[in-house]
Known about the structure:
Structural class: mainly alpha
Distance between the termini: 81 Å
Strand content: under 5%
Number of strands: 0
Radius of gyration: 22 Å
Number of domains: 1
Shape: globular
Order of helices and strands: HHHHHHHHHHH
Largest sheet: none
Amino acid sequence: MPTVDATEPVSESRAARRAAREERRRHPVLPPIATERRITLVLGTVVFAFLLAVAMIADPVIGAAAIAWGALVVAWGWPELLGSPSSFGSSLAIGIGGVLAPTVVALTSDEPFLRHVPVVVVVAMFAMFAHQLVRKDGRAHLTQSVAISAAGIAIATIGATWVPLGRTVGGSATVVVACIALAVSAAADIGAPFKQLRPFMLPAAGLLGALSGGVAGLLSDEVGVLAGFLVGGVVGGLAHITRRALGTLTPIRGMRGQLTAAAASVLVAGLPVYLLARVLVG
């Protein structure tokens, strides 16, 4: 009669696996690092949003410089935050894309202002792959290195979508509304250490952004309450999701990681603001 090894793992049934997935969905298990308060991350978001609003009001070229500065912050900390095995090349490629994209948008004299950004992305991607070719460490973790660099390039170049708003009807006012919403909604991140508040952090970020954006839009003749409400809710929620996603990475405990995540959360909000401004404002 065959014997059964008691140490042999018993395969789970399909129903058991389904039940386990449902349990994880209802009660997600967060890594401890995701439940820590990040004051530097919140303050970094507030300060960058404030500087962007002031720069865009002053002049679109200064606004482009602010975006380039934020992209350089991302280039500085992104490889370390995501654990890139080739930090220098990743930072170089991200920096090239992040600086050139707002620069070419600022130098484009007529619509469509974003038409040269794809060329910048190609240049940055070329720099990324060229670095991989000249690596002398055996190109360890090549796929990971390329993926991290490509994600950083995407975030840095998306930030260029803020720049045309300074040159379109109602665009500067929309930037101010969005930046107010970004700053106010960042307060929702403070709830991370509290178990009871954690499930409501994303709705709170969206609501804070929508309310503050609506109030700011009410005070602006060019934006209005509805557009301000929608812009604020979208950017507040998107920026919060970006920070929460990056907040599970170990380097987020350092100032460099938190400033990188703060800059990234503001840069990625540029695209929805640009699209909503074109549809609802000007």
